[in-house]
Amino acid sequence: MSTTIGFYIIDRVLGGPGNGVNLNRDYTEIEISILTKVFERIAQRVQDSWQNNLEIESTLNGIETNPQLLQILSPDDIVVIVMMSVRLGNKLDGTLSICIPGEFLDDVVDRFSPKAARPNKRPDPEKEEIKRRVVLENVCESNLEIEAIFDQFTMQLKEFIQLQPGDVIPLNKPLDDDILVKVNEIPWSTAKLGETKQKKAIKLSHILSNGNEGIQWGKNKTSS
């Protein structure tokens, strides 16, 4: 794992914004302790992800900051290395490599034939509910950008460059008409304009059932 990802995780765990993670140094003992706790939880998630196909036990044996010092396998052993590009928070790119011993793959490759690829055990409803809650809790901590779009229109470039402070631009949408609410640039709801506690506000009118409905609504209501 690249150090940028490690420092980003540490900064976020400690309540930081995840900035300034391009540090050219080794981890401190405290930072190693934080990463250990994080990867112990990741190891448990890896074990859970395999449970419907294969009984495995995933544990964290330790953290090594210098890959050249690892003594897990002999130089002659066959391994499969999976390299992945990781993006965190839409502002950080890093790499993550997973090394899988060939002996492990020899033991499980037959289980992933078209016939054996079907789950050999029913999911545990209680465990599935716990995983669903964990995912939901993590998602609920995400920040969303919400936009309330009153109207959209086109303007010629020569008119645009002549605009000055104080100019009035008339719109074609009535004040009591529905406006479009977008979440992370995705149409999500219609709403009415209003006020509350001496501040502009919107009152949700209708939650769009899917993205296609919202996109179609936006196109129909956009004036040109």
UniProtKB/TrEMBL annotation:
Q: Where in the cell is it found?
A: Bacterial flagellum basal body; Cell membrane
What biological process terms from GO does the record include?
Answer: bacterial-type flagellum-dependent swarming motility; positive chemotaxis
* This protein's GO CC annotations: bacterial-type flagellum basal body; plasma membrane
Question: What keywords are assigned to this protein?
Answer: Bacterial flagellum, Cell membrane, Cell projection, Chemotaxis, Cilium, Flagellar rotation, Flagellum, Membrane
Q: Which GO terms describe its molecular function?
A: cytoskeletal motor activity
- Annotated membrane topology: Peripheral membrane protein
What range(s) does the Flagellar motor switch protein FliN-like C-terminal domain occupy? 141-208
Extent of the signal sequence: none
* Location, primary (coarse class): other
Q: Which family does it belong to?
A: Belongs to the FliM family.
What is the name attached to this protein's record? Answer: Flagellar motor switch protein FliM
Q: Which species is listed as the source?
A: bioreactor metagenome
